[in-house]
Amino acid sequence: MSDVLLTLSGVHKSYGATRALRGVDLQLQAGEVLALVGENGAGKSTLVKMLTGVVPMDEGAITLRGQPQRFRNAQDAQAAGILAVHQETVMFEELSVAENIFVGRHLLRGPFVDWAAMNAQAQTVLDEIGARFAATTLVKDLSLAERHLVEIARALSQKALVVILDEPTAALSQAEIRDFYGIVRKLRQQGVGVIFITHKFDEIFAVADRYLVLRDGAAVGTGAIADASEQELVRLMAGRAIDQIYPHIDARPGEEVLRVENLSHPSEFQGLHFSLRRGEILGFYGLVGSGRSEAMLAIMGLNPQATGTFTVLGQRLDARRPGDAIAAGIAYVPEERQRQGGILGFSVQDNISLAGLARFANGPWLSALNESALCQRMTERLRIKTASPHTLLSGLSGGNQQKVVIAKWLGLDPKIVILDEPTKGIDVGAKQAVYQLIAEMVQEGLAVILVSSELPEVMHLAQRVIVMRRGLQVAEFAGAQIQAEAIVAAASGLDGTHTPAPALQQEVAA
Amino acid sequence: MKTLLHIRREWLLLAISACIALAVGLRAPVFLTWRNALDIANDSAILAILVMGQMLVLLTRGIDLSVASNLALTGMACALLGKAFPGVSIVVLIALALAVGALLGGLNGWLITGFDLPPIVVTLGTLSAYRGAIFVASKGAWISDQDIHLAIKGLPRAVWLGLPALVWFALLVLALAAIFLTLRKTGREIYALGGNPHAATYVGIPVQKRLRLVYTLSGALAGLAGLLWVGRYSIAYTELAAGYELTVVAACVIGGVSIGGGVGTVLGAALGVLFIGVVNGALPVIQVSPFWQQAISGAVILVSVALNARSERRSGRQILERQGAAA
């Protein structure tokens, strides 16, 4: 137990002006589970990328079993015995499960790929971890949770010294998580060092031996889990008390602005009913891949197969295109900031004015003057930190990019704002600013739908919370009923409330 | 289940090709003769060789628009060498064609990976550059029948075991491609990196190296095709096979090779070649005016590509519990 397996000392990494890691030290022993915790943007993902050789480090040293290591690429790190199960599944959809497990190190017989052996070995590993699909299935036919099992199988099928688990349970159900704990314990018994990254404190206390807290790219605390409490970890992670992070919201819900009835889709969600009132924050909580974003896209007219009735301010809305929904006063800030939200190669000003270009026109010509006036107003209102309105969006930090995307929609004076994971991948300070902004929006009389996988966020901001699981609306909580345990239980199907919506039951019976 | 659908699509393509052949054969029985079949096979052989190279490139989400120019330039190089050294053997000529083609293709790969440029831009540039190089090499002159080396002319006309040599070349290339793509680690990595380039770096696939490999192979096959083309038509000139790269890409797409990368089989691509061969062979036989031939084969390509795209389109993610599981 006492031999040191992996050491990191004085690790630095910068992306442009952003300092992702500032002198992090880490020690991992054989047969130990180290919980690496920190807020989004604290530098956990960067640390993983360096350990797996995906990005080079600027400064510092990695030693494995006392040997200094220098990883030039992912192959080097794999060869040295460091394996990762990534947060975003690293999968090849068109290839089979077996091939995904062995990709990059196909089993060979002579010069040729040995398909039979590969399928057989893959199946053995899959059976071990309790996966209920065949090794020859194509990955594109698997659900998100099943894909995570493939990732885990990939890590288990190789001789690993160090296994990094980067939020592997984000999409797993409660039963699958229990199987997963078993896998982690098995790895520990085999003398593997495990680095376990998660947001869920119950998991940390269930499987980890020690913890290391990262904040703003620096290690701020480490110790044995047995001596730690949840409050202490939260304090270390945030660097400030919770009531400093979440603003006090002083808004009284007014009249109904949006009503959604019987929103369904052949494979993604079914029978969603909800309403939203002026000055209200409605939280949508669920595991990753529970169908929340897909339902929001349907409101915007971006999910053509969805059916349902939408009423906005008393008017039927039949959004066939996003333009219809925007005209009705709905704004949608999508989850993927860099892909769906902003245009990285455009300037801050061009991004902000993009959604409402028609408003800045003088006859057939765009008016740069009007555009820049809006940009100025929004930059001040949202406190966007940018060198000039003409800086490219790619030159801003994640938090400021998100503010620009939100500014684009606020410029249209919407009545309803849908925020899909608005704080994904931004640091604590920027989060605080986004929360403040949300508070201001509802105080001005906007209605906000907040889609989030971060429980504290939903609990502290939303007046009502709708929980989704597997495409179904499984619970709704309001006011004082908003309790962490109840929400998590509903989202993961833990508490025996295995009652699919009536519509589905009928369909099954029919 | 999915593989079943996949296979069915390939057989569908074969069935449509057969139906067209039969329908045309009813009107013009000459179409169904062995001689005509050999003609179509001979025409398709060169296309098949080019398609295998193009398919490798398409699998990586790239495109190689320079294949026809490469073919013409390599063909011209072989013709010039044959004219200058009448004693040179066919083995040397084949090696030369492969080497020159690989060099030109490798240049594409080097530009794409070395400067991180989009493949369509690089190969569009080399399409013009290689074409221009032919003019420079030949000083604009044609090399016609009497000046083409006898071995070059003889090769496509040779018959081995009852089949034309061209067809043997194509079958050999198809077989090698199938082995490479299903049984070699490198081949599997090409599928993987085309399917998800981001993930490919995570699992340690040397992406840049593989990209250089596929463009080099595509070039080498285009070079071989150049030698065979010059032999078959007994001529080499600047405009040789101009615009043929589009037919090559079309055959791939008809055969189910996805422009988006990561999807495609040798069998499918080969059937795409056969389909184009049958359509192009059939139109003159049923006396469609040459002015209409191009328009019709273009329309047929568009229709089949549209049908393919339809079958590839995915309907939403499966989030709801499947009904069997929920019961």
Protein architecture, described:
The complex is a heterodimer of chains A (510) and B (327). Chain A is an alpha/beta fold. Chain A is built from 19 helices and 24 strands. In chain A, a hairpin with a 2-residue loop joins strand 1 (4-15) and strand 2 (18-29). The longest helix of chain A has 16 residues, at 174-189. Chain A is globular. The model of chain A is unreliable at 496-510 (pLDDT under 50). Chain B contains 14 helices and 2 strands. In chain B, helix 2 (34-59) runs parallel beside helix 7 (165-183), helix 4 (90-114) runs antiparallel to helix 10 (207-233) and helix 11 (244-254) packs across helix 12 (266-285). Chain B is globular. The two termini of chain B are 22 Å apart. At the A-B interface, helix 2, strand 8 and helix 19 of A face helix 7, helix 8 and helix 9 of B.
Describe what is shown at a glance:
Chain A is α/β, with parallel strands linked by helices.
CATH class of the largest domain in chain A: Alpha Beta
Tell me the strand order in the biggest sheet of chain A.
Answer: 6-9-10-3-11-12
Count of helical regions of chain B:
14
* CATH superfamily membership of the largest domain in chain A: P-loop containing nucleotide triphosphate hydrolases
Largest interface: A-B, 47 and 33 residues
Radius of gyration of chain A: 24 Å
* Beta-strand fraction estimate of chain B: under 5%
Shape field of chain B? globular
Q: Span between N and C termini of chain A?
A: 58 Å
CATH architecture descriptor name of chain B? Orthogonal Bundle
General form of chain A: globular
The sequence of SSEs of chain B as H and E is HHHHHHEEHHHHHHHH
Q: Enter the CATH topology name of chain B.
A: ABC transporter involved in vitamin B12 uptake, BtuC
**pLDDT averaged residue by residue of chain B:** 87
Largest sheet of chain B: 2 strands, antiparallel
Q: Identify low-pLDDT runs of chain B.
A: 1-5
Count of individual beta strands of chain B: 2
Structural class by secondary-structure content of chain B:
mainly alpha
